[in-house]
Amino acid sequence: MKLKKILFYILTALILLAIVLFLYTCRVKISRILSPFFLSVPLVYIVKPLAARLEARKVPAGLSILAVYLIFLILLAAACVFFIPALADNVRELMETLPDLISRYEKSFNAVLSDLKSSGWSGDVKKVLIKEIENGSALLQRYLAGFLENGINTVVSIARIMIDITIAMVISYYVIKDSDKFRDYFISLLPRRWRNGIAGIGREINQVLAGFIQGQLLAAMIVGVLETIGLLLVNIKYPLALGMIGGLANIIPYFGPYIGAVPAVAFALTISPIKAVWTVAVFLIVQQIDNNFVSPKVIEGKLGLHPVATIFAVMAGGEFFGILGMLLAVPVMAILRIILNKAVELIAQ
Predict the structure, then answer these.
(1) Closest to 263 in 3D by CA, of 110, 145, 132
(2) What pLDDT digit, counting tens, does each position of 106-141 carry?
């Protein structure tokens, strides 16, 4: 009997190891396969509440979802006519300007280095300052070059993104329409004594994801619009593209506003230091509006995380998984908190 248990544990460990190796080896292909499913998650939480309102007016479930899709498509068509061309022009001009911007910053850094080397400061002080300036120059060049490369890659892969979104819409349709069936089927696979606990965890996770996704997207849209208006008022080039970048970056808690401000401030510096100061002022004012009026209304209090835990989650996610990790760190942390709390409750019983 003891030998059977040992063999069982060994076999289980080998199977788990094989699964981990398979997932790691085929991670690129797996991510491509799963990308429509990941895209369907925010889509479900955006479409579902709107479809539920139509269902409350006696519209059948399937038709209510299709009606919401139709509204989105009409809005998208309107955006393509009035908004997308201007944004595309902004982005195109932005990408064309980036190489020149990098060259300007190189000249500025070289001028600073030249002045520093000819100054009367001690050799040790010069060495430290020159090293820090060179590090800052290299970091800025990598950031701008990466921004350019990512922008080009996004344009190149736009067709694939559209295909993924189309598949995600189909997946979301069935997930919303048959959500009760999926839930009941999953619960039926569990032992009876676990069902109530798992169902409770599912409800809490659903509330967390709904609050985070809906709240962050709404806040990002508001912030993006406000930043675009602010950049227009201070007469900065490419206000639409830079404002939308700022709005999207705002999805990342705490650090997003600073990340989103970097491109706008960098371009403003090429015009004049005063323009850069005005641009910083725009982002600071919008951030104060977001912190004091927008986020408290649509986000805060819905995740149940302390600000310190949120900062830790974002930093850890960024360190291990980059921008995507920063985006997903907070909801993942909130979900882990729910599961941990439930596990502690079960152990204490």
Answers:
(1) 145
(2) 677 667 667 766 666 666 666 666 676 666 666 666
Q: Does 33 map to a domain?
A: no
CA count, 13 A, side-chain hemisphere, 144: 24
Dmax over Cα atoms in the chain, in whole Å? 83
Q: Is residue 267 part of a domain?
A: yes
Higher per-residue confidence, 101 vs 227: 227
Please tell me the total count of domains within the chain.
Answer: 1
Written as six digits, the tokens of 193 are: 């004594």
**109: in domain:** no
pLDDT in tens, 257-285: 888 888 888 778 777 778 888 999 999 99
Q: What is the dihedral of CA 224, 285, 239, 279, to 10 degrees?
A: -150
Please report the pLDDT score of residue 145 as a whole number. Answer: 58
Instruction: List, as one string, the DSSP characters of 107-155.
Output: HHHHHHHHHHHTSSS-HHHHHHHHHHHHHHHHHHHHHHHHHHHHHHHHH
**Of 105, 110, 95, 142, the residue nearest 276 (C-alpha):** 105
Q: Which two tokens stand for residue 93?
A: 């001009």
**Contact, 231 vs 247, CB < 8 A?**
no
Half-sphere exposure of 202 (CA within 13 A, CB side): 13
- Domain of 208 in residue numbering reads as 190-349
Residues 188 and 311: beta-carbon distance below 8 Å: no
Residue 204 maps to a domain: yes
Residue type, 82: F
Cα dihedral 177, 180, 183, 187, rounded to 10, equals -150
Of 101, 95, 99, 103, whose CA–CA distance to 151 is shortest? 95
What values do phi and psi take at 178, rounded to 5?
-110, 30
